[in-house]
Specification:
414 residues; two-stranded antiparallel ribbon; 5 strands; mainly alpha; 64% helix; cell inner membrane; 2 domains; single chain; transmembrane; FtsW/RodA; 3-stranded antiparallel beta sheet; Probable peptidoglycan glycosyltransferase FtsW
Length: 414
Amino acid sequence: MNWSGLWGKLKPAGAEASGFALPVRDGIQIRDSQPSRAHGFDLLLVWVVVCLLALGLVMVYSASIALPDNPKFARYAPTHFLSRHLLAIGIAMACGLAVTQIPLRVWERLAPWLVLGSILLLVVVLIPGLGKGVNGARRWLPLGVMNFQPSELAKFAIAMYGASYMVRKMDLRENFWQAVWPMLATLGLLGILLLAEPDMGAFMVIAAIAIGVLFLGGVNGRMFSLVLLVLIGAFVLMISFSEFRRERIFAYLNPWDEKYAAGKAYQLTHSLIAFGRGEWWGQGLGGSVEKLHYLPEAHTDFLLAVIGEELGLIGVVLVICAFFWLTRRVVQIGRQAIALDRVFAGLYAQGVGIWMGGQAFINIGVNLGALPTKGLTLPLLSFGGSAILMNLIALAVVLRVDLENRQLMRGGRA
C-alpha cells in the first residue's frame, strides 16, 4: 500500500507545522498521530544542581547542629544555619527562574555595567561601618536577610564581561595592547580590591575565569603564555612578601609538624582526620566527631570533610563525579553555542564552567590537603547566602543559553 499517498489524502490541515513525529517503517516515513515533545532546556543539568543543593542543605544542618554549644554561637538555635541556608536557596531559586526569562542579548549589553557595579561594591565593602568584618577579613555587606559578598558578584560579572569583551575585540586578537591589556587592567583593579579585604581565593577564581575566557576566545598563544607568566609571578610575589601567606604554604607542606599542627595547619589536620574516620562508607549521617568544635568552619569551607567523615569515600566520590559532570555539561553547552555562531553566549557558559569546576577543584584540594588552605566554599553545597545566590543565577543564565541553542536548532529564533 502507498502509505505516503494515503497520508497525503488523510492528513489533517496544519499537520506539518504541528510537530508530528516522523518514524520510519519498512523504509517508508510514517506520520505518527502524537506530536513529539522535547524539553526546552537540559533537565538532567537541573536535577544534578537540585541534588547538590539538597545534599548541601542536609550536610550544612549536620555540620552546624552542634555550634550552639560554643559560647560564640550560644544565641543561635540548632536550626539557625539550616533555616538561613534554606532561605538563601529559596531566594536564589526565585531569582534563577526570573533570570531564565532574560535573553542573552540583554546580558551582553549589561556586561560592562555588571563589572562596574562589582568594582563599586568591592570599594564600598572596604569602608568602615558599611562592610562587615569577620575573622580579620572585611568581605560582606549586611543586607538584613543575608550578608552579601561582592566578590561573588565579581565572579559572575567577569564571566559576562570577558565574553562580551572578546566578542568586541575579536578582530584584534593578535594585538596584545589592544586585545589583552584593557582586560588585564580590569582584572588588576579587581585583584587590588580583593587583596585589600583580603580574599586571595576569590581573586584566584576570578583570574582563572578571565584568563580561561581569553584563551577560549582565541587570544594569540604567545600572548596567553605571557599573561599566564605575569599572573603566576604576581602570585609568587604576593606569597613572598606576605609572612602570613608564607606560613600557610609551610604549614601545607608539613601539616603534622608541632609548629603548625595547632596553628596554621589546624584546620587541615582535623580535615584529614575526618576523612580518615570516614573510611569507605562513613560513620553515618550525623556521626561526625570533627564537627563538634574540632574542625572550624565545618559548614562552609570544610563541608567536604564532614561529608567524608559521615558518608565516607563513596559520598566524596559521588560529589566529585557530580561536579565533573556539571562542569563538562556547562562547557558543552558553551561549545554548542559557539558552533551556532553565538560567541558571547558560548564564552560566557564556558567561563561559568571554569568558575564552578575551578572553585570546586580548589575547595576539594584544600580539604584533602592537596592544595594550601584557602577561604573558598564548595559551590552549591557550602553555607553562604550570596554564594548560593550567584551560583544559581550564573547557572540559570547557562540554562537560558541552552534554551536559545535548542530554539535555533529547531529552526526558531533565539
